[in-house]
Structure formats: C-alpha cells, structure tokens
Amino acid sequence: MEPLKNIYNLQFxxxxxxxxxxxxxxxxxxxxxxxxxxxxxEELALKERMRQIxxxxxxxxxxxxxxxxxxxxxCAPSFTGLGGIIFPDFVEQYGLEEWELSVETLAxxxxxxxxxxxxxxxxxxxxxxxxxxxxxxxxSENEHIRRLASEGCRPRLPWGLSVPAxxxxxxxxxxxxxxxxxxxxxxxxxxxxxxxxxxxRINPDLAVTIAQSWYxxxxxxxxxxxxxxxxxxxxxxxxxxxxxxxxxxxxxxLADFTITPEKLAWGENIAFSFTLISRIETPHKVRVxxxxxxxxxxxxxxxxxxxxxxxxxxxxxxxxxxKNHSFKDLTTRRHYPGVHRIAIIxxxxxxxxxxxxxxxx
Length: 361
What we know:
- By secondary structure, this protein is an alpha+beta fold.
- Helix content is 42%, strand content 21%.
- It folds into 2 domains: 4-243, Serine Threonine Protein Phosphatase 5, Tetratricopeptide repeat (Alpha Horseshoe); 252-359, Immunoglobulin-like (Sandwich), CATH 2.60.40.10.
- A 5-stranded mixed sheet has the order 2-8-7-4-5, with no helix packed on it.
- Helix 8 (127-137) runs antiparallel to helix 9 (143-151).
- The longest helix is centred in the middle third of the chain and has 17 residues, at 186-202.
C-alpha cells in the first residue's frame, strides 16, 4: 500500500502551482518549487510535507494576510480530500493574530477538506472564545462545519495538536456534543461518538453518565453511545455492559479451547477455536471478544482486545467459534519474540487463556 504522505506528490504540487498562478499571476512557481524541495522531501511524513508546503508558499504570496487569504479561498475548492489541509494549515501558521478572519476562513476551508487540525492552536490561545465559536458552528446548516465543531474540540484528536486543558477537563465540550447528538448526518454523529470515546479514556465516570442519559432516547443517540463506548466495552466496564443488556457471564462457559501452532514465526497466523455454552434459559445477550497480550520491546506484555461477535440467544445454546490472527508487522504494531497470551472474553469477563510463543527465524 502506498504511504499516505504520497498524496503530496509531484502531480499535486504541479496542480497547486497551476491553480495559485491562475488566481495570483505574480506567483513565482519555480522559486516556490526550489524552496519546497530544499528539505529532504522523501523523508518527510504527511504532516511534515503539509507544513513544508505552507512555509514554502508564504514568501511567494502577498505579505498582507488578508490578500493571501482571498487568493487561497479561490484555490481551495480545487483541492478536496485530505490533501486540502494545506489551506487550513496556512491559517494555523500565519493567522492566529487575525482571529475573526481566520476563524471564518477555517469554516470555509473545512467544506473542501478539514480544518480540525488547524483549530487546535486557536483552542490553546483562547479556549473560551474558540469553544463559543464552535457552539455557533454546531448550529450551521452545513454538515462539514457542524462536524468541525465536534471534531476540532476532541480531547485526544489523532494527529492533532494536544490541548492540555481539554485533556485534563473535557467537560467544556459537552455543550457542543449535546447540540449535535441528534444530528441528521452520520458524518457528524460519528464525530460526536469519537469525541465521547476520547472522554471515556480521560474521565470514564463522566462518559458513563452521558451514555446512561443518552441511551434509549433515539436510534441516533443509541448509535452514538454504542460507538462511543467501544473503549469501555473492551475494558469490560460493567456499567457500560449493563447499558447494552450484557449481564453476568457466570452461566456462560467455554469448552474445547485450542490454539495452533503453539510456536510461530513473524508473518504467520495463529488459529484458535472454542465452543461457548450458555445455560441461561431466558433470552440474553452475549458479547464475545478475544485479547492478545503482546510482548513489548522491553519484555513486558500489553493487551489488545478484538471484537468477535454479539449474539442474542433465546435460551440455553452453544456455538463454536474459529478465528485466524496474523502476526505480520503493521505500521501500527510491531511484534517481538517471546511468550504471548490469548484470552477469550465473554460479557467483559475473561473465561479462558492459553500461551504461545512467537519466535525469530
């Protein structure tokens, strides 16, 4: 798979030069390109390339910020998708002292790409003022702007600049989530769920309270709560399990739990199977997961939980599960040799576990 950073390729740069020149004929495209590639371009990650474009554009656009924004607003509609974050990034880099113009421009740019990363320095500079702006955005007719209200204030936004005050106390964002919890756009509701999931990792008690108050009000809020509770569900939080009707697993048992092979090398799969048996005579819900305790570089182990199935049984039943799990290195996970552990979790409770060894070849 091609690295994501390669969205900023020569074709993109050429198009950017063409569009800017069309809207600003004085643009020195050759000088811009020379400055752009002064850095070791191939070694730069996605957001590093984004920032290099921003810094390389600035010397060749008008020194008056307002004039430059007028030019960039004409260019931005030609760059939809993730690559378009270069335009909000220009605002982030050069517009913090031009609050009203910059904030209005971020709302405009987000319709073509996303301004979620660029709003973070504004939150840090003046959280009260920026959150008030996001409250206004939450009532916009445009779903992209409404999503910006929720996504931009996430306490743990991936790839986003950290906002320490929100990581310490996320309660100020709740008024925005309340405004958007019944949003018509799934795009927006997914952002609300991700924001609430962030909160669950900072303040689980607060997240549980919100989930309890929202769940059962509508299909929209039920979906948000379920998606937002994924971290707490994987941790087996009994309060969240109860919200979704997962009761004690005392009357649920495992049989014939096996893994193959017991020793495997990098890139190979481990296969495991087991039978889940329920002795409950009344209707009940069952959530089945498995966890792998991975060996880390320092020799300790770290758990990762994976979802297997959710079942609604009418009475006593049994079901056999079989699964293959790959130990191929990923960009998000590297594997290390040693004794690993795999566990089966039912309704938040570990029911059985076996060990296996990952070896170097």
